[in-house]
Records
---
Amino acid sequence: PVPAPPKLQDEVSCSICLEYLRDPVTIDCGHNFCCVCITDYCERWEGSTTGVFFCPQCRAGFLQTTFRPNKQLANIVEGIEQLALQPDKEPKEKLCEKHGKKLRLFCEDDGEAICLVCDKSRVHRSHTVIPIEEAAQDYKMKLQEALDLLRQVTGEVAKLQAQEGKKTAQWKDKVRAQREVIVAGFAKRRQALEEEEQLLVCRLEEEEEETLQKLQKNAVFLVEQSSSLAQLMMEIEQKCQQPAADLLKVRAPLTMSHSVKLQEPEAIHTELQDSYEVPRVRETLQKYRVDVTLDPNTANAYLLLSQDRRSVRVGDKRQDVPSNPERFDTCTCILGRERFTAGRHYWEVEVGDKTCWTLGVCEERVSRQGIFTPSPATGFWTVWLRNGDEYAALTSPLTELMLRVRPRQIGILLDYEAGEVSFYNVTGSSHIYTFSDTFSEPLRPYFYPGVRAGGLNDAPLTLQPGTQQP
């Protein structure tokens, strides 16, 4: 605000609060004071009980009842204040809401700015009061300390941000490197598979060519034999047209005809090898491996189960077991506990040197009563071994299987959504056979350890431990 001239400043200021007069009153000696200031002064003055007080400026006596409001002076003060609030000037300083005075002090007890009149009031009389500039300076120091602390914390945050940024970059580098390893690994695997595929196709083509040559050789042999026989038949027919005397003289053709025998061509096997080796097939299947155990409630009464429910063999005596509709009453069969309605599941069965077995999956609802022939039409997808070396997929009719390596362990992969049940020779790392169908019912592992005939087939079928899928 624009200050008043020094002489006028003294005339419009209260000598008690040192600020512009508010509701000015004139006392007997002629001096002017704020009505609030002089009233508070009188209340705090410790004088005689006569009601006489002494002027704060000249010490002349006066009575409180003789206060005279000075309207003219009030108008002058108001004019000076309005002049100070002209446009483009500094904003008006905040004043005390109670007394209208400048806030020159700070009460530390109440934590608020007060004016000089507030300081002399009973409310703040016993409080610790300091000049507002000192309080502001102390507050600035505290703010500076807080600012320094915030700057320190900000610096630490910046360091952490840099560390996290470094971690992020390192993590991206690791992921990128691992991605390159995975891509390179699978590229090598695909290359190996392609090479193996080409090798198998070449072998098949060689087998095809070799067999075709043998078949062609047999065809030529049969054509030559047929031609020879036709020539001999023609000679005999010509002889038959000769007169009787000449006919009876001919002995050679007759003797030759009696010595003729059918010469069969070389026996050639035309069965293709149903199994083929797949590199790292077992490692690929392991990710679908599940832990399968046997369900004793479905076991035929002649079957003997191990305590851990992983092995089953045929006994020579009927066991005393409860009769229930789940149990196979005639065929020596048993199911796994697990029921599959989705996903891919792989398990392995040790068959060892057994000469007879049937393995695969079946629908939950298959008949357990009487004698039956497993096939997809009756809810079974299985392969078997009979007579020690006769393998077949139980399709209708049977599909004979030629295995180069005798399996001691069979792997079974069920892909429910794809409708496939695949069998693998774990011993020879080769594929045996795949059923393709559509599944809509729960499927369960199926086991038939054969009949008790003594010897090798008395050995059990044993499930290999697996890892249960989450």
---
Amino acid sequence: MKLTCLIVAALVSIPFHASAVEAIDIKLTSKVAKFPADVPVDLAVTFTNVSKEPVRILGYQTPVVDGIQADIFTVAMERKPVDYIGRLYRRDAPADSDYLTLKPGESISGIASLWDNYDLSVSGTYAVQFKTELLDARMGRGTAVSNVVFLDIEGREPPLDPDDLDDEPQTKIVNGSNEKWKSCSSSQKNALIDARQHALNYANDSYDYLMAGSPVTRYTQWFGAYDSARYSTVRENFRKIRNAVDNETFKFYCDCNQSNAYAYVKPRKEYKIHLCSGFWPAPMTGAGSKADTLIHEVSHFRVVANTDDVQYGYSANLSLASTDPSSAIRNADSYAFFSAATPYNPYNPCAPTVTSHTGAPITAGWDGANCHVMNVPSGLTAFVHNNAYYVNALPGTYCPAPSGWDTANCYILPYPSWSTSYFVWSGNLYLTPGPGNACPAPSTFDGANCFVMPLPWGSTPFKWANNLYITPTPHCVIGGYDGAHCLVGTAPASRTAYLWGSAFYYGH
């Protein structure tokens, strides 16, 4: 069979109701079967209403209105799907204006450019099929598919992105971070600076919540029933989102005029975010805000969480969590809505407490940049190990009864010649008894051995010059002795402990 015979396959009828009263046929066609590396790979997609009633299709889920605006094709080479590299938008739940209506028998078509939107870097035969959800939610959900076409495509790199052809956007330094702009007014720049700070607050709060390991309402509402593997994925994704929002240089492009979208990114174009007309009137915080839109878009980047757009809108995302948790954890809007759900208000960057050596909490204070835990007393050597704070122990002079300080160690008793050994058992110091179960004072026979005294933590018994001693307990000015050093406390699991100057801190 020749390849050209496979270009246009039979139409596929997609019933969306059990009664099949309404249906749509989707045909995918190509003028040629072979595409040299310098030729665009453009396909025509035609939608025909073959029912007797009007049918609505979601415009941005087709290439009819403005080309490919979502991952609406299955493109595979040797049965291995290739990456979608096109735009990923943040949108509200579909409005009436987002739909196209087809009368009975009516057809509409659009041109889909695969080269701009899918990874065609490897030469070979590609199988292409239109496959997505198309119809109005009121008609019932269903997956619409076209015929499959097979195309011989010579490998090529993606076409040059207009973002890369522009002059370097103007740079403005804000709080030590770089924001870069293109086509943004002063008021838009200020709004984005504020939105990024609120997005960081959201990301910090979300990560702290997930590190606490309490998968209660907030998690299950947006990501579904608890599963340890899914929970770990969400937590790790928020760590990456937080680090990106906090540390990376972002390029903001105020050049998208789509009123039904907030923003878009291309997942391989790291930290370039295009803001659309729907972004500017949105509130600064809350669900569907400027701040959670940045969370949504940052999550899309391949080097961050590599999320998709499975569902848009508050209600649809709640439903997704309850019915399909595996999809919810890869859905960008789920991360956005989770981040804006009952965060600290205002956000307290030092809310997670340090756990002291006794288990009691130590509250840190915000110094404008990081969380100050405490100053280290002068004369001590401080260090951080395994995200915990330590200082050195000082030589001790305290000797618990019945021992006594002899200016060097803690003297207990003359060592009897008939005792064969001393030993420690269950934290107590013992001697073996003499004839007739004799025990030298102040030790006493306990029915088996001579009980001498409880041995303090960090103290060591020894025999010297026919006397029994213990070493004095090392002294901790702060913290508690752990056998080597003085443990002061452990930083929150979601933060990084560090020493700066003569004080303990953790990062925000």
---
Amino acid sequence: MPKIYPDPESEKAIMGSLVFCIHHKQGCKWSDELRKLKAHLNTCKHDAIQCPNKCGSQIPRVMMTDHLAFTCILRRAICEFCNVEFTGIGLEEHAGTCSSEPIYCESKCGTRVLRGRMSIHRAKDCAKRLRRCPHCGREFSADTLAAHGATCPRSPVPCPQRCDAGPFARAELDAHLRDECKALTVPCTFKEAGCRFKGPRHLLEAHLEANTSAHLSLMVALSGRQGQQINMLKSAMAKLSTNYTGTLLWKITDWSVKMQEAKTKDGLELVSPPFYTSQYGYKLQASMFLNGNGPGEGTHVSVYIKVLPGEYDALLKWPFSHSVTFTLFEQGTLGSGGGGQGGVAESFVPDPTWENFQRPSTEPDALGFGFPRFVSHELLNRRPFVRDDTVFLRVKVDPSKIVAV
């Protein structure tokens, strides 16, 4: 092995060369001869040294103060809430459990409470703790219980009329006032009849006993007024249902029963609803003898028209002089050539000398004018005039000769 000999000149040259601190990248700006580097590292603030607490950490001098104050696991530290001294690692374990640390209520009531008193706060003071209504048994948060109490249907309340009874559950108060409260001011039960009495309920019975006669008079008067109103309504309804077209289509149902009755009762007459020739015209009514009348008795159906007293008779021309046509329709068939419904028709033009068509008195002619042999029973049974036990008779006044005011 070759021998190595020291070279003072080379060593001197090397040790005198210009170098930067090994912590140059960490921010140290020192630069000098290599021989001075070791001495510099003994003071370089970026050079790591052993923690004086002997926690085992190598810490740059520049960070040692912070390490000793905040991160060294063997540092001595005092809890800011309970003032108990801990090692660094002990303080970390203590953090989050300190009973003296103020924290927000877990029920989110917004209050900050010491951790050690949280259970007491939630049980006794928290606005969001659940409390049971003593009246209805339902649970509410403490901050809404008072509002519920103002509307709770089982909450006891006094009678607003200050009677001797009560208190009552709020839900029962209306029934008490309506049916029982003796202090409540009530009107007489004959109020609608006109009695003006108002007083405490306990006086009502005495009032009714003392005013029986007066109440009876009021009810009689009320009944009269109601009767007038009913008559007015009936009149209005009759006007609404009145036919003003000059044509009556008379539907006669239960034909077989009525025919049988007509054969057993002499002179049995069916009368139609009244109708007008126009809104302000003549008032007419048709009638029918199912078993015939006069010359048609027992063999024919007889039809007649009579003039009734109308509202506008004073303004009309008399005697009544317009032609009238009776038509009994066949059902379910068309006339010859398909021109319309088939049937039997008879017409007449009133003679101005006939008494039947003069202006009627309050008691009009009992029969009127028409055709005692309008249609025979034989023809009625042979052709389809009756269907579904129903017959249709049309009575038509010639519209071209209607003279209305």
---
Amino acid sequence: MYSKNTLRRNALRVLNVPSNELVQEESFIKKIKIKNEGSTVGFVKEKETELIVPPYEKLEKNDSRFTKTLTMLKNKKLRQRKGKMLIEGKRLINDAIDAGIELKTIYFSREKDLADIKFKFQNDVEILKVFYKTMQLWSELHTCPGIMGVFNRPTVERLHLLAEPVIPVTLLCDNIRDPGNLGSIIRNAAAAGCENILLTKGCVDPWEHKVLRAGCGGHFRIPIITDIEWTHISNYISKETTIFIADNSSDIEAGSFTPEFINYDEAPEEDRNEDGEVEVKKYVTKNEFEQAVSVDETYNEQTELEKYEDIDLPCYLYSSIQFPTKNIVLYIGGETHGVDARAVKLACDYGGKKVKIPLENNMESLNSSFAMTVILYEIKRQLGEHYVLKTEEIKCN
């Protein structure tokens, strides 16, 4: 007899499995193929492809080589002193290798990731396998890609060889502190074909991991000069340069549609010497490479800079200016602090002006990287025919 609360279970179907037939474990089943005829289900095991990987060393838990290297790379001063940079992810690592940047060490956790790395033109690369959880602790990404590369930071001379400038534009970045913003600036400047990028002291380190990530390989295709003092800025700009300041805080000049480029801010005659050059307070010193450097101390004199705080440079619609065909410097400032008085002084010294992108819906400003890109492609549009003809002449010769 069964009580009322007793559970009763009846057999629904009995399957007879032949004893000579092995049942495969689910972990070994690579693919399930459903056949059309009947209801038969067959299991097909894919052939595993053999991975071709170079010899490597597996780090044990007590091996501190990985953590010591990452500690050094996370510190800006140590990173600069050693001349190293850290890159995460297969795509960016391969971009750096394709550009000829010297690879020193690869850390990985899965062989399939290592197999995708192109080790061409690379010698004496140290390849170390690290536990994924250890790598995940040091990764700057939300999802660790499982592979990291330590590279020698490329020199400016090396990047000059790799770059192919299309427009005669030098970017002057001042007080850009957001890594993603600077990374976008470098990426878009390389894509537009600028000549080089100058970063004043105070900008975020362009070889910091987040900037490299946002740059998407642009770092390896355009020369970048960092930590420039304002007193040294004249060493990086030729005397024939014209400065353009991207600024949305100024009002556009009435009737600013100029048919040709005009230098509106030439220095007064009384400020010029017998050779017609502008007189500024300068002296010559040497930098860390024992190279002669001209120093202009007026960029450090507060009383001198106060004169430029209230100066309103002429501001023009970005698409109405006829840009010169050489020696253009485009100034991009930080979005928070706006245009520095030293940038206004620089523009006055070099016959500069402001350019503005019109905005709608009461928006005050654009992201600095986006504003820069709009102006760069307007310059590229205007100078496109000139550079197409120049390229054709080179091919013919």
